[in-house]
Amino acid sequence: MGNCCLAGDGGGQSAVGGSSSHPDANVPNDAVEGFLKSRGYHGLYTQIELSLSALNLRDRDVLSKSDPMVVVHTKGRDGSLQEIGRTEVVLNSLSPQWIKKVIITYYFEMVQTLLFRVYDIDTQFHGVEEKMLKLDEQQLLGEATCLLSEIVTKRDRTLAIDLVGKEKSTSSTHLKKLGQLKVHAEECVVSKTTAELVFRCTDLENKELFSKSDPFLVVSKCVESGNAIPICKTEVLKNDLNPLWKPVSISISRAGSKETPLIIECFNFNSSGRHDLLGKVQKSLADLEKLSSGGQGEHMFVPISIGKDQQTKVLKSRLFVDKYSESIHHTFLDYLDNGFELSFMVAIDFTASNGNPRLPDSLHYIDHSGRPNAYQKAIQDVGEVLQCYDSDRKFNAWGFGARPIDGPVSHCFNLNGSSGHSKVEGINGIMMAYTSALFNVTLAGPTLFGPVITAAARIASQSLAANEKKYFVLLIITDGVITDLQETKDALVNASDLPLSILIVGVGGADFKEMEVLDADKGERLESTTGRVATRDIVQFVPLRDVQGGEMSVVQSLLEELPSQFLTFMRNRDIRPNP
Questions:
Q1: What does the mean pLDDT of the chain come to?
Q2: Residue-range domains of the chain with CATH
Q3: What region holds the C2 domain (predicted)?
């Protein structure tokens, strides 16, 4: 996807303060994330180039054929449209192939609805530049809609969709097929070469009174406006004036080129988010490669003001590049194009702390007005994104913490009521099974995650052994703090070697602080009872109340790390898309 990631870790969103070469590094990550996002750093994304063609358009001209042009819009959840591009006008054609491409940014964690409108451009406007054409003066030949994820998940990234519209000659409101539109997507990646670097600093300034500085690096690229856009970060190292960070990877495409100026800044971590600048250098990737081969450190500097003049002060502190290497990194879309799929799973908390489902104050209350409860909304919103990446749309669904009719409390039961299998058909199947289960089980407890994680891991392990091109995503929705913390850690450590990521949504007003230890973004790397450490971060935990009303949706908060977790697993296992 062209982003920066910590090598062998959770990727572009890997924990600053999560895991490090120091076993006692346990610095919260939230302040660093907010700091980076305020400066333009976001999750994984990539530019997509759309190529368009059509078949069997309606002929609206009397003496010749239609002169079609496509206008592409994105459609918001509220129905609002935003134009993102137009093709050229193709003269006298009912099956045009447009040459001009439309560029859109693809975000994995978002549902991106596209609307395509094909217009017949009137002869009198043929000399007018496309972007200057007034669309209300042109004749609409038909329109089509789809999700961007529907296109990129096709094996050849080509989707055929029907153009529909009202027939001009009839008063019927029924939409008729008015031809077909073909949309082909290509990833705009200049280079898939990625540089892996190991950074080290010496003689950093101490900004703390009773301890030493807690340094981390931010790598930014300089853009034409003069601004610096963050593209990479290291973890935070605690109490260290001579830090050696874990390897980081920087896509050359993401950096711009090997010659693009980069700013490497070293900060002292502050939980307030106001991090102290300890020094910086400006070097390109090519310069950093030379630093590595020469073994020489670069003195850092800080900007200072002398009167009205801005000058720089060279510091004793130096930045070293202990390692620089380059390799080809395949993108998330490369794997999708090669037939890899994401398989959605869900596990729902049926413990008694949710409240009586028949009462309006229960988290499980089914509102007859159709307004979804927190559990239903999490299933709908996450499932809406992930279902496009699963061809059969059959999802494993479990419940935990309840007593099925005439049975003991179960911490992993099939949501569909079957004793033999746990799969349901589509997101609607999950919703129906969930509603049915509410009236067929007795809410109980305690809250245990271990059994459902083990069940998901077993399926992922079987798929891996069968060489299936699948990566599994388990969504756990819960209202309380787990009581089997160590057992859950053991299950997560074992699952870290499998094609599995786990998304946890906390609903209700419980104190979820203890849950954050499961997410390596907010704590140390997980360790099992036997002392084994998780090979990668596979958990993303989000309390629903923390993101409600914010700039970022629950889905974006949950899913922004998923592509990098997927890629980390593939690279750790040396699984590559077939050429």
A1: 86
A2: 47-187 (2.60.40.150), 192-328 (2.60.40.150), 339-573 (3.40.50.410)
A3: 27-161, 177-301
